[in-house]
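Figure 2 data, in text form.
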Amino acid sequence: MKRYIRTAIIDMKDEPAETRREIAASPHTREDELLKLAMDGDPYVVAGLLRNPNLPVSILEILTDSRLANIRYAIAGRETTPPDILEKLSRDEDWEVRVAVAGNPNTPEDILNILSQEGSTAMIYSLLMNPRVPSSLVARVAGWKWCQYDPDICDAIINCPNTPADVRERLEAME
């Protein structure tokens, strides 16, 4: 049975948390209500917002200042997050947020290059999983001798669709 989700709510705080989460995720919720929900103290309600396909960029911008890293992480991993918000999150204090930015296909190439300089295994793996990682960055990472220390990264380089053919052949010969 399909539940009817109310969109005419006077005070969101009077609604049970489960109802607020459903309203937050609904594509039919009005922007003024989404804004109220963005200020909700329940992180699950805010997470519901991030599942809303019609969430306005203006609300995403507000949420990037959340004190909760898991909210910023979810924004960074959202495929519809605009490049300017990803650029801001690429400087986040939490490394997991930055790793999520590295894996996002909307992240601009110059930001991917900056993030690659962090050099952590998680960051490099996330970059290699990004379908838009430039081949020049993959070639540069492959030159860092990851394969000597981390076979998973070596496999990720080999299997990355943007790996230059000569780099792939060289790494495959090393295995």
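Caption note: The mean pLDDT is 90.
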